[in-house]
Amino acid sequence: MPEIARFYGIVIKLFFGDHPPPHFHAVYGEHVGLFNIETLEMIEGDLPKRAKKLIIEWATLNKSQLKNMWETKEFHKLPPLD
Question: Per the confidence metrics, is the pTM higher than 0.70?
Answer without folding.
Answer: yes
